Protein backbone atom coordinates (compact mmCIF):
# COMPACT_ATOMS: atom_id res chain seq x y z
CA UNK A 1 0.00 0.00 0.00
CA UNK A 2 1.50 3.32 -1.07
CA UNK A 3 2.07 6.07 1.47
CA UNK A 4 -0.89 8.25 2.31
CA UNK A 5 0.98 11.55 2.05
CA UNK A 6 2.50 10.55 -1.28
CA UNK A 7 -0.92 9.68 -2.69
CA UNK A 8 -2.45 12.85 -1.28
CA UNK A 9 0.16 15.04 -2.97
CA UNK A 10 0.04 13.15 -6.27
CA UNK A 11 -3.76 13.41 -6.34
CA UNK A 12 -3.53 17.16 -5.76
CA UNK A 13 -1.02 17.36 -8.64
CA UNK A 14 -3.66 15.62 -10.82
CA UNK A 15 -1.34 12.67 -11.40
CA UNK A 16 -3.56 10.21 -13.28
CA UNK A 17 -1.44 7.27 -12.10
CA UNK A 18 -2.47 7.80 -8.48
CA UNK A 19 -6.14 7.69 -9.44
CA UNK A 20 -5.52 4.40 -11.26
CA UNK A 21 -3.55 3.16 -8.26
CA UNK A 22 -6.27 3.88 -5.68
CA UNK A 23 -8.93 2.57 -8.03
CA UNK A 24 -7.18 -0.81 -7.99
CA UNK A 25 -6.21 -0.79 -4.28
CA UNK A 26 -9.21 -2.05 -2.29
CA UNK A 27 -7.34 -1.19 0.92
CA UNK A 28 -7.26 2.51 -0.04
CA UNK A 29 -10.88 3.17 0.99
CA UNK A 30 -9.79 4.30 4.47
CA UNK A 31 -7.21 6.61 2.89
CA UNK A 32 -9.87 8.06 0.57
CA UNK A 33 -12.16 8.63 3.54
CA UNK A 34 -9.26 10.27 5.37
CA UNK A 35 -8.77 12.70 2.47
CA UNK A 36 -12.45 13.69 2.58
CA UNK A 37 -12.31 14.19 6.36
CA UNK A 38 -9.07 16.22 6.23
CA UNK A 39 -10.42 18.38 3.42
CA UNK A 40 -13.58 19.06 5.40
CA UNK A 41 -11.65 19.89 8.58
CA UNK A 42 -9.40 22.23 6.55
CA UNK A 43 -12.54 23.99 5.32
CA UNK A 44 -13.81 24.33 8.89
CA UNK A 45 -10.51 25.76 10.10
CA UNK A 46 -10.26 27.94 7.00
CA UNK A 47 -13.49 29.68 7.90
CA UNK A 48 -11.78 30.80 11.10
CA UNK A 49 -13.56 28.32 13.34
CA UNK A 50 -16.28 30.95 13.67
CA UNK A 51 -19.02 28.34 13.80
CA UNK A 52 -17.23 26.17 16.38
CA UNK A 53 -16.25 22.56 16.86
CA UNK A 54 -19.76 21.16 16.48
CA UNK A 55 -20.09 22.80 13.06
CA UNK A 56 -16.79 21.27 11.94
CA UNK A 57 -18.00 17.82 13.01
CA UNK A 58 -21.31 18.42 11.21
CA UNK A 59 -19.34 19.55 8.15
CA UNK A 60 -17.31 16.33 8.22
CA UNK A 61 -20.49 14.25 8.39
CA UNK A 62 -22.12 16.17 5.54
CA UNK A 63 -18.91 15.91 3.48
CA UNK A 64 -18.77 12.14 3.95
CA UNK A 65 -22.44 11.82 3.02
CA UNK A 66 -22.00 14.07 -0.04
CA UNK A 67 -18.91 12.09 -1.11
CA UNK A 68 -20.78 8.81 -0.95
CA UNK A 69 -23.87 10.17 -2.72
CA UNK A 70 -21.82 11.80 -5.50
CA UNK A 71 -19.67 8.67 -5.97
CA UNK A 72 -22.77 6.46 -6.10
CA UNK A 73 -24.51 8.76 -8.58
CA UNK A 74 -21.32 8.91 -10.65
CA UNK A 75 -21.18 5.13 -10.63
CA UNK A 76 -24.80 4.81 -11.83
CA UNK A 77 -24.55 7.59 -14.43
CA UNK A 78 -21.08 6.59 -15.61
CA UNK A 79 -21.63 2.83 -15.87
CA UNK A 80 -25.34 2.56 -16.69
CA UNK A 81 -26.36 5.79 -18.46
CA UNK A 82 -23.22 7.09 -20.19
CA UNK A 83 -20.69 4.24 -20.35
CA UNK A 84 -18.01 3.93 -22.99
CA UNK A 85 -17.32 0.49 -24.46
CA UNK A 86 -14.33 -0.02 -22.10
CA UNK A 87 -16.15 1.19 -18.98
CA UNK A 88 -16.03 -1.26 -16.11
CA UNK A 89 -16.16 -0.08 -12.50
CA UNK A 90 -17.71 -0.77 -9.13
CA UNK A 91 -18.79 1.62 -6.39
CA UNK A 92 -15.60 0.99 -4.41
CA UNK A 93 -13.44 2.15 -7.31
CA UNK A 94 -15.46 5.37 -7.57
CA UNK A 95 -15.34 5.96 -3.81
CA UNK A 96 -11.57 5.52 -3.67
CA UNK A 97 -10.86 7.66 -6.73
CA UNK A 98 -13.29 10.47 -5.94
CA UNK A 99 -12.22 10.53 -2.30
CA UNK A 100 -8.71 11.41 -3.37
CA UNK A 101 -10.08 14.15 -5.63
CA UNK A 102 -10.80 16.07 -2.40
CA UNK A 103 -7.07 16.47 -1.75
CA UNK A 104 -6.86 20.02 -3.18
CA UNK A 105 -9.41 21.01 -0.54
CA UNK A 106 -6.66 20.98 2.05
CA UNK A 107 -5.59 24.45 0.87
CA UNK A 108 -8.82 25.82 2.34
CA UNK A 109 -7.00 25.94 5.68
CA UNK A 110 -5.24 29.05 4.28
CA UNK A 111 -8.61 30.78 4.59
CA UNK A 112 -7.88 31.25 8.30
CA UNK A 113 -5.76 34.25 7.27
CA UNK A 114 -7.85 37.41 6.91
CA UNK A 115 -8.56 38.30 3.31
CA UNK A 116 -7.66 34.87 1.93
CA UNK A 117 -10.81 32.90 2.76
CA UNK A 118 -12.75 33.58 -0.44
CA UNK A 119 -9.70 33.10 -2.67
CA UNK A 120 -8.67 29.86 -0.93
CA UNK A 121 -12.18 28.44 -1.23
CA UNK A 122 -12.54 29.50 -4.88
CA UNK A 123 -9.19 28.00 -5.88
CA UNK A 124 -9.89 24.82 -3.89
CA UNK A 125 -13.36 24.45 -5.42
CA UNK A 126 -12.12 24.73 -8.99
CA UNK A 127 -9.11 22.51 -8.31
CA UNK A 128 -11.27 19.86 -6.62
CA UNK A 129 -13.70 19.88 -9.53
CA UNK A 130 -10.86 19.33 -12.00
CA UNK A 131 -9.51 16.54 -9.78
CA UNK A 132 -12.99 14.97 -9.69
CA UNK A 133 -13.10 14.91 -13.49
CA UNK A 134 -9.65 13.29 -13.61
CA UNK A 135 -10.73 10.72 -10.97
CA UNK A 136 -13.95 9.88 -12.81
CA UNK A 137 -12.22 9.64 -16.16
CA UNK A 138 -9.70 7.17 -14.75
CA UNK A 139 -12.12 5.15 -12.61
CA UNK A 140 -14.59 4.71 -15.47
CA UNK A 141 -11.84 4.04 -18.03
CA UNK A 142 -13.10 6.86 -20.23
CA UNK A 143 -11.16 8.06 -23.23
CA UNK A 144 -13.26 11.24 -23.33
CA UNK A 145 -12.64 13.96 -20.77
CA UNK A 146 -15.83 15.67 -21.96
CA UNK A 147 -17.85 12.57 -21.02
CA UNK A 148 -16.26 12.63 -17.55
CA UNK A 149 -17.19 16.33 -17.22
CA UNK A 150 -20.78 15.49 -18.19
CA UNK A 151 -21.02 12.63 -15.69
CA UNK A 152 -19.62 14.85 -12.92
CA UNK A 153 -21.98 17.69 -13.78
CA UNK A 154 -25.08 15.49 -13.90
CA UNK A 155 -24.07 13.78 -10.65
CA UNK A 156 -23.43 17.11 -8.93
CA UNK A 157 -26.83 18.49 -9.93
CA UNK A 158 -28.67 15.37 -8.75
CA UNK A 159 -26.62 15.24 -5.53
CA UNK A 160 -27.36 18.92 -4.85
CA UNK A 161 -31.08 18.30 -5.21
CA UNK A 162 -30.95 15.24 -2.93
CA UNK A 163 -28.98 17.08 -0.25
CA UNK A 164 -31.25 20.14 -0.46
CA UNK A 165 -34.31 17.94 0.06
CA UNK A 166 -32.59 16.09 2.91
CA UNK A 167 -31.61 19.34 4.64
CA UNK A 168 -35.10 20.76 4.16
CA UNK A 169 -36.63 17.66 5.74
CA UNK A 170 -34.08 17.64 8.57
CA UNK A 171 -34.62 21.27 9.56
CA UNK A 172 -37.24 22.02 12.21
CA UNK A 173 -40.62 23.20 10.93
CA UNK A 174 -41.25 26.91 11.03
CA UNK A 175 -44.36 28.28 12.51
CA UNK A 176 -45.89 31.62 11.66
CA UNK A 177 -46.68 32.15 15.34
CA UNK A 178 -44.18 34.21 17.31
CA UNK A 179 -44.39 34.15 21.09
Task: Provide an overview of this structure.
This protein has one domain. It contains seven helices and no strands. It is mainly α. It is 69% helix and 0% strand.
Supply database-style keywords.
globular; mainly alpha; 179 residues
Helix content: 55-70%
Q: What Rg is obtained from the alpha carbons, in whole angstroms?
A: 17 Å
Total number of distinct structural domains: 1
Strand content: under 5%
Unreliable segments of 5+ consecutive residues: none
Distance between the termini: 60 Å
The beta-strand count equals 0
Quote the average pLDDT.
90
Summed up, the helix count is 7
Largest sheet geometry: none
Broad shape: globular
The SS-based structural class is mainly alpha
The succession of helices and strands, N to C, reads HHHHHHH
How would you summarize this macromolecular structure in one to three sentences?
It contains seven helices and no strands.
What's the SSE blueprint?
Blueprint: H1 4-12, H2 16-24, H3 29-46, H4 53-81, H5 91-100, H6 117-139, H7 145-170
Amino acid sequence: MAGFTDRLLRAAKLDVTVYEEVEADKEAISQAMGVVVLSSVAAGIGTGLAAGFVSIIAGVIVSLLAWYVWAYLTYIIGTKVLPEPRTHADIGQLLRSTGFSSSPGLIRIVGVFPGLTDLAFLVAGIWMLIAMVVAVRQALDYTSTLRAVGVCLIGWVVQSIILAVFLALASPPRSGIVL
